[in-house]
Amino acid sequence: MIKQLIFVFLLLSACSTGDDLSKMKKAKEEIVQTEHDFELMAAAKGLSEAFSFYADTAAALNRGSYVIHGKDSIRLFYLATRYIGVQLKWKPDFVEVSSSADLGYTYGRFTFTTHDSTGQAIVSKGIFHTVWKKQADGQWRFVWD
Questions:
Q1: 18-144: which CATH topology?
Q2: CA distances from 92 to 38, 95, 105 (A)
Q3: d(C-alpha 42, C-alpha 47), whole Å
Q4: Which of 1, 45, 47, 64 is deepest in the core (most CB within 10 A)?
Q5: What is the strand order of the sheet 87-97 is part of?
Q6: What angle, rounded to 10 degrees, do the helices at 18-45 and 47-54 form?
Q7: Distance between CA atoms of 44 and 142, rounded to whole angstroms?
Q8: For the residues 122-130, what does the mean pLDDT come to?
Q9: Structure confidence at residue 16 (pLDDT)
Q10: What 3-state class would DSSP assign to 113?
Q11: What is the residue extent of each domain of the chain?
């Protein structure tokens, strides 16, 4: 009986409070808005500016067979000619945050459109996964993409 009471106490103490749930809900909304703003910046200013702006200083990009580390390397990566004029669209289908509301992740679908030398559109679709970290100034920046 004592073990059961201890288990119930531990379970109840681990549950989030109403205030925690409110902070978590707000954080989720902020991350979804950040994803949207990120996508708009990518369309308006290009991938290099958008990815470097939304990257944490220690961010990493997983690009298949290699990982790009750091905000400056990310900016340079997307300055490559093959990324000029491409369209990247995405929307998170799912968002979750930590109980401390300072770390979160999203995943969803993306569409990447570029053009070949004849002007023919080449469309790639896939799934993205991004990890977000709340900064000291309250802004969200990705640490993994």
A1: Nuclear Transport Factor 2; Chain: A, (3.10.450)
A2: 12, 7, 10
A3: 5
A4: 47
A5: 67-69, 55-62, 140-144, 121-134, 103-115, 87-97
A6: 160
A7: 19
A8: 97
A9: 56
A10: strand
A11: 18-144
The dihedrals phi and psi of 4, each to the nearest 5 degrees, come to -65, -40
In angstroms, the CA 131 to CA 143 distance is: 6
Q: How far apart are CA 3 and CA 118, in angstroms?
A: 72
What's the rounded Cα separation, in Å, for the pair 112 and 128?
A: 11
Detail the DSSP E strand segments found in the chain: 55-62, 67-69, 87-97, 103-115, 121-134, 140-144
The answer to whether 130 touches 142, Cβ cutoff 8 Å, is yes
- Sequence-distant (6+) residues with CB within 8 A of 97 are 24, 27, 28, 31, 103, 104
pLDDT value of residue 17:
64
Name the residue among 57, 110, 111, 55 with its Cα closest to residue 78: 55
DSSP character string of 36-51: HHHHHHHHHH-HHHHH
Rg (CA), the chain: 19
**How far, in Å, CA of 15 to CA of 31, rounded?**
23
Does position 97 have pLDDT exceeding 50, yes or no?
A: yes
